[in-house]
Amino acid sequence: MAFIVTSACVGCKDTHCVDICPVDCFYQGPNTLVIDPDECIDCGLCVPECPTAAIFEEADVPENEIPFIELNARLAPHYENITDIQEPMAESSPYTVEEAIELLQKELAELE
Ligand code: SF4
Ligand code: F3S
Q1: Which of 24, 73, 74, 93 is the most exposed place for a label (fewest CB within 10 A)?
Q2: Residue pLDDT, tens place only, 21-58
Q3: CA-based angle 8:49:13, to the nearest 5?
Q4: Whether residue 73 has pLDDT greater than 90
Q5: Sign of torsion over alpha carbons 92, 97, 103, 107
Q6: What is the predicted pLDDT for the residue at 39?
Q7: Model pTM?
Q8: Is the CB of 20 under 6 A from ligand 1?
Q9: DSSP classification of residue 4
Q10: pLDDT of residue 109
Q11: How many A from CA of 17 to the centre of ligand 1?
Q12: Using a 6 Å cutoff on CB, does residue 19 contact ligand 1?
């Protein structure tokens, strides 16, 4: 089990989550952050830090966000580790859940 970053992060990247993570397991791509599920220790500390409520425990990921479980795992090895807070891209995601999934699946197809 791990915690999962979902669609509310895509196009937002608030980044306050990275400051609290004790094992530095957040990774950044052009449109979102993801959590490496092999490194996450399930502490849950990042959840209240995210102002867009983008982070869920794997078992609690909403039905329509389930593709993010695989997207976090497969994008993490391609993204750069991030440990410092940065300026957000936007206050909230401009995408629907479906649009966010499509965007990241396209990214993944180009990376793998
Ligand atoms: Fe890091 Fe804990 Fe969040 Fe996992 S649950 S990403 S270890 S802060
Ligand atoms: Fe994203 Fe929330 Fe972190 S928007 S960057 S998961 S604080």
Answers
A1: 24
A2: 999 999 999 999 999 999 999 999 999 999 999 999 99
A3: 40
A4: yes
A5: positive
A6: 98
A7: 0.97
A8: yes
A9: E
A10: 98
A11: 8
A12: no
State the Cα–Cα distance between residues 21 and 65, nearest whole angstrom. 22
**Side chain identity at residue 54, one-letter code:** A
For residue 1, name the pLDDT band (cuts at 50, 70, 90).
confident
Q: pLDDT, tens digit, for every residue of 13-22?
A: 999 999 999 9
Q: Cβ distance 97 to 59 under 8 Å?
A: no
State the DSSP string of 30-63.
SS-EEE-TTT-----TTGGG-TT--EEEGGG--G
The CB of 44 under 6 Å from ligand 1? The reply is yes
Ligand nearest to the CA of 48: 2
Nearest CA to ligand 2 atom 2: 50
In angstroms, what is the span from residue 34 Cα to ligand 1's centroid? 11
